[in-house]
């Protein structure tokens, strides 16, 4: 069995670190939007989960039913988080594809 080349492994690890840093910077700039109630509540964040805006349409506001609005906001936040997670996984897969990684470090 052939021993792995330590220099090549270290080079691959360095490339992976650089790719991850680039990916994190890209995600921090990429807007993601989550919504609920057919667009009654919209939440905007970055792919790095930095929330930047919440929009609530007037028809979603019923002073007699605050719980529904709270639920709509929560669902919109969860939607945005899931979309940001999916975006990160998609970009990570593209970024790291074809990279020769040591056994056990593959994604």
Short structural summary:
By secondary structure, this protein is of the alpha+beta class. It is 51% helix and 17% strand.
Can you describe this structure?
- The chain has 107 residues and is an alpha+beta fold.
- The protein has one domain (6-96): Ybab, Chain: A.
- Helices cover 51% and strands 17% of the residues.
- Strand 1 and strand 2 (41-46) form a beta hairpin.
- Helix 1 runs antiparallel to helix 2 (66-96).
- The longest helix is centred in the C-terminal third of the chain and has 31 residues, at 66-96.
- The protein starts with 5 loop residues before the first helix and ends in an 11-residue tail after the last helix.
SSE layout:
Elements: H1 6-29, E1 31-36, E2 41-46, E3 51-56, H2 66-96
Antiparallel strand pairs: 1-2, 2-3
- Could you tell me the number of beta strands? 3
CATH topology: Ybab, Chain: A
How many H/I helices? 2
Could you give a short account of the major beta sheet?
3 strands, antiparallel
CATH class, named Alpha Beta
Architecture, CATH level 2?
Answer: 2-Layer Sandwich
C-alpha end-to-end distance: 24 Å
Q: Please, how many domains? A: 1
Question: Uncertain spans, ≥5 residues at pLDDT below 50?
Answer: none
Helix content: 40-55%
Identify the CATH homologous superfamily: Nucleoid-associated protein YbaB-like domain
Q: Summarize model confidence as the mean pLDDT.
A: 88
């Amino acid at each position: 069995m052939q021993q792995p080349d330590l220099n090549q492994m270290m080079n691959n690890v360095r490339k992976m670190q650089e790719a991850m840093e680039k990916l994190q910077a890209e995600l921090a700039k990429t807007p993601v939007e989550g919504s609920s109630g057919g667009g009654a509540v919209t939440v905007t964040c970055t792919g790095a989960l930095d929330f930047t805006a919440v929009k609530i349409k007037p028809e979603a506001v019923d002073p007699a039913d605050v719980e529904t609005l709270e639920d709509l906001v929560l669902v919109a936040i969860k939607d945005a988080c899931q979309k940001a997670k999916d975006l990160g996984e998609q970009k990570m897969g593209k970024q790291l594809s074809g990279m020769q990684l040591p056994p056990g470090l593959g994604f």
